[in-house]
């Protein structure tokens, strides 16, 4: 662990005070899991606390990886001479940490269990005792320097007994009637000294720091470092929000990561206050309704149950009835779903009005919500299988769409009467919704106009009342509020620009292989349905009556459960086997993909094995997300090192309109939620990629760096 290496550095504050460490995971009510550490100190040395370890790790490790709880032991738990961190937090009986847990309550001491001790044996621990009262008197004020006192205390007492701040008060000791220190009078003197030495802006920032860190105002000075004082990334976000409200200024979300002390933040705030402010709308000028409706109204709650209790069972019954009937008589297209959804759209919501504000859970909002659920239950039917049929589907729902428009199957569109799309537009897997929530629980419907020849990138968001000029190219992970980042180079990053096979190849090869994989994935459910077919293999005159009688018979539930369970449990394995066989066959016939331009709750080892089978290079102990990684076109171009952690709902793009290229993730890297990585990305060892990051094409992110978000087409680096 890096704290052990820091203890070997003569310039480190914990030099010579740590002989062995071990990291483990412990629970947190918001973050779910955070880092804890077992620390072994040499005999005769005082224990370092969290503040001192954080100070030693500040230049060595990213803040999210700092330990949040310390357990002092005489040795680290081991088995067969290997560290044994499994279930250590449970064995120690550590409480779940919260945002209200004080740093002083995060220090424990325990006796290390003997090697080979079973995991069900608990480990006794106790919280380290803190004595808060200490007064130092000296008749020579010039010798009382705070930094000298700190230096001496680090040698004399354990780290958690060192005060967070030291203040010098001139004159005799102030005592009350009980001959004890008058803390109120001392605090008043300290506050007056502090107020006289700092600017008004620093005074207000100190107050905000103290509230966020749960400290007294006297404990915060202009030199107080937010993270060294016990702050974390969640608290940093809340503090930045408080600073924005307090000073009515705009600040970047990463300001505390770049400027972590009170004085540095005060300078940033003063600079922001000095800039001319754009005229802002008052709350009463913003859209919103005066009348509101209760979301807990019993009638509204019953209405919300209709999609689950009526629409979905009705649709499932219709599908199963038609499926059984089709097995005996004939085949029909599944176009009925979309027709039903379209009829509900017309009957319930009618034509959507532009620019009107409606109260949520009112009559119109309830009709709108019910319509969305009907469309969600019904789906696109056969219209969802091809690009031109998707365009027809959206046109049938009221959208005005031009010629040669390509819409990704996963693109999220809604309020179709308010959408106007010009010719030659490309919509990748993006969100294009004219709906927005306004003040006083109101919904606002405003049109979206996308000009001709526009491209909207992966995971981009088109907000309501947007008018994209002709030829605009929004990149991945951006929004219509970031028009200054739109550039022509983003056009080639869309998945629609990937060269497609000739239609003959699609019909003869791609289409047949897709049908084969789809059939194999449904084969287990079809096999489980054989008892139904065998039982009703005789054709009668009134087949509808026979099917209705079967549906109301007690055996229906057993057959239905058998088919659903078989399809849900065995179906994914059959699908993966079919994909693997197709992949191996294509590799043998056409060769594996290579980089180059186009001519024109455990470590999920099974997932790693599956990715390796598909051609990817995956190291050991990789933590995969439950939702997987989307849009990996060529697994042969994916390289993942050891000890890599992935967040959920990330998207890796190995092929675009420019060409193919590798995506390389180094050892020990962390890739957060909703990350979009474009071809050619190289993430270094132990690099942290935060949530919502956009990794540009051919971008290189060095070892031991921290990045998050997106700005001007690339991720933002933290210092």
Strand-pairing-aware structural class: alpha/beta
User: What is the number of helical segments per DSSP (H or I, 4+ residues)?
Assistant: 20
User: How many discrete domains?
Assistant: 5
Please mark out the parts with pLDDT under 50 across 5 or more consecutive residues, or reply none. 330-337, 598-603
- The shape, in one word, is globular
InterPro entries: ACP-like_sf (IPR036736), AMP-bd_C_sf (IPR045851), Hexapep (IPR001451), PKS_PP-bd (IPR020806), PP-bd_ACP (IPR009081), Trimer_LpxA-like_sf (IPR011004)
Domain Carrier: 196-273
GO molecular function, one term: phosphopantetheine binding
Transmembrane segments: 299-318, 339-361, 503-536, 557-582
What's this, in brief?
This protein has 719 residues and is an alpha/beta fold. Helices cover 34% and strands 15% of the residues.
Mind sketching the topology for me?
Blueprint lengths: L1 H5 L13 E9 L3 E9 L9 H8 L11 E4 L5 E2 L2 E2 L4 H5 L14 E4 L14 E3 L18 H11 L26 H15 L2 H14 L19 H15 L7 H4 L3 H13 L23 H7 L1 H23 L7 H14 L6 E4 L3 H16 L8 H10 L3 E2 L4 E2 L4 E2 L5 E3 L4 E2 L3 E2 L2 E4 L3 E4 L2 E3 L4 E2 L4 E2 L4 E2 L4 E2 L28 H26 L1 H6 L7 H9 L3 H15 L1 H20 L5 E2 L7 H9 L3 E2 L10 E2 L7 E3 L4 E2 L3 E3 L6 E2 L2 E3 L4 E2 L4 E2 L4 E2 L4 E2 L4 E2 L4 E2 L4 E6 L2 E5 L1
Parallel strand pairs: 2-3, 3-6, 9-12, 10-13, 11-14, 12-17, 13-18, 14-19, 17-20, 18-21, 23-25, 24-27, 25-29, 26-30, 27-31, 29-32, 30-33, 31-34, 32-35, 33-36
Antiparallel strand pairs: 1-2, 4-5, 6-7, 8-16, 15-16, 22-28, 36-37
Helix pairs in contact: 6-7, 6-9, 11-13, 12-13, 15-18, 15-19
